């Protein structure tokens, strides 16, 4: 999924600390709405000024639920990526992924698309002409570590993922390991992505790796997580040191748990690129503009998305807390 603006916009909100003292830090981070192309608005929950990442998760967009029965749905034209993985997860609808590797893959609810950009890939994401009436889902980015970010691009589609019943919830493991289940999705740092679907009132106490930091967001309904009321549109950050995170719901709800080892490499994130320096980003932009490196997206009639102009100041690397360093 492509962005229409940089990830360091000045209107990002800081969030509020909701638990301190003997408990590891937890921070409620409000997202903000971002237009995506002509037809879609997303709720962006990472990166924010106070919290840039959760593990290697560096970008979280929630779109819908939206009635698209008389609309084109998602229409994101070809655009480039470097230094990251994109993870697409649908609750409703259908999106067709096409890329410069030759992939042409529809994704539907319960399936996972994972695209690894490596040194460079281009893709498009579009609802087909005959699409379901609703559209609702998530797209997330995972920062690639130094040892993987210059590698070859690849694309994976997982039509089936590990699922089990745990107490009041149906659990699906998108990424990583949880409760003896392991996702087939290939990632490059210790990482976790788990969905909990509650059909009605109930509670659950997911076990956490104390070495991970975690983020929790509500995709549908509402929940109380680790004592904090959480509704759609915000992300609850949980610092390392926790062994569990109690979840309580009063009705049906869909909750996503993200986690991973704290990512220690400083990043420069701009437009659709993740690098380590201003020069990384400038080269990627120049290559995309000149038609180098990324290749063309197969069977897509839409023209490529043009890159915005670079800012007039040098882009600075930031750590996972949002602290900037000279690029």
- Estimate the strand proportion: over 45%
Radius of gyration, in Å, reads: 19 Å
* Outline: globular
User: Element order, helices and strands?
Assistant: EEEEEEEEEEEEEEEEEEEEEEEEEEEHEE
Q: Provide the CATH superfamily.
A: Jelly Rolls
CATH topology: Jelly Rolls
Major sheet attributes: 8 strands, antiparallel
Distance between the termini: 26 Å
Number of DSSP-assigned strands: 29
Q: Oligomeric state of the chains?
A: single chain
Mean pLDDT: 92
CATH architecture: Sandwich
Q: Count of DSSP helices?
A: 1
Which structural class matches the secondary elements? mainly beta
What top-tier CATH class fits best? Mainly Beta
Strand order of the largest sheet: 1-2-23-20-25-18-15-14
The poorly predicted ranges are 8-13
Number of domains: 1
Helix content: under 10%
Give short descriptive properties of this protein.
mainly beta; single chain; 46% strand; eight-stranded antiparallel beta sheet; Jelly Rolls; 327 residues
Explain what you see:
By secondary structure, the protein is mostly beta strands. The protein has one helix at about 280-290; strands at about 15-20, 25-30, 30-35, 40-45, 55-65, 75-80, 85-90, 95-100, 105, 110-115, 120-125, 135-145, 155-160, 165, 170-175, 175-180, 180, 190-200, 200-205, 215-220, 220-225, 230, 235-240, 245-250, 255-260, 270, 275, 315-320, 325. The protein has a single domain (about 15-260), classed as Jelly Rolls, CATH 2.60.120. An eight-stranded antiparallel β-sheet has the order 1-2-23-20-25-18-15-14, with no helix packed on it. Strands 3-4-5-12-7-10-13 form a seven-stranded antiparallel β-sheet, with no helix packed on it. The chain has a four-stranded antiparallel β-sheet with strand order 6-11-8-9, with no helix packed on it. The longest helix is centred in the C-terminal third of the chain and has 13 residues, at about 280-290. Pfam families: Pirin (PF02678), Pirin_C (PF05726).
């Amino acid at each position: 999924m492509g962005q229409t603006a940089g990830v360091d916009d000045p209107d990002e909100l800081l969030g509020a600390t909701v638990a301190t003292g003997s408990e590891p830090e937890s921070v409620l981070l409000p997202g903000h709405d971002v237009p995506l192309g002509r037809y879609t608005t997303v709720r962006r929950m990472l990166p924010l000024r106070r919290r840039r990442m959760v593990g290697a998760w560096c970008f979280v967009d929630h779109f819908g639920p939206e009635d698209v029965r008389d609309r084109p749905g998602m229409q994101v034209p070809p655009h480039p990526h470097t230094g990251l993985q994109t993870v697409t997860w649908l609750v409703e609808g259908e999106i067709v992924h096409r890329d410069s590797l030759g992939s042409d893959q529809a994704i539907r609810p319960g399936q996972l698309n994972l695209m690894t950009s490596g040194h460079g890939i281009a893709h498009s994401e579009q609802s087909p002409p005959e699409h379901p009436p609703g559209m609702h889902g998530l797209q997330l980015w995972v920062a690639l570590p130094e040892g993987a970010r210059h590698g070859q691009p690849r694309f994976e589609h997982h039509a089936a993922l590990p699922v089990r019943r745990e107490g009041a919830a149906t659990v699906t493991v998108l990424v990583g390991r949880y409760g003896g289940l392991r996702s087939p999705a290939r990632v490059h740092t210790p990482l976790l992505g788990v969905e909990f679907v509650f059909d009605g009132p109930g509670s659950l106490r997911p076990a956490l790796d104390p070495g991970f930091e975690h983020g929790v967001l509500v995709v549908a309904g509402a929940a109380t997580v680790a004592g904090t009321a959480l509704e759609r549109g915000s992300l609850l950050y949980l610092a390392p040191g926790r062994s569990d995170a109690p979840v309580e719901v009063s009705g049906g709800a869909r909750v996503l748990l993200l986690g991973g080892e704290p990512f220690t490499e400083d990043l420069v994130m701009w437009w659709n690129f993740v690098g380590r320096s201003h020069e990384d980003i400038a080269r990627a932009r120049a290559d995309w503009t000149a038609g180098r490196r990324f290749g063309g997206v197969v069977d897509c009639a839409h023209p490529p998305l043009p890159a915005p102009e670079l800012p007039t100041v040098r882009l600075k690397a930031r750590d996972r807390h949002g602290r900037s360093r000279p690029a």
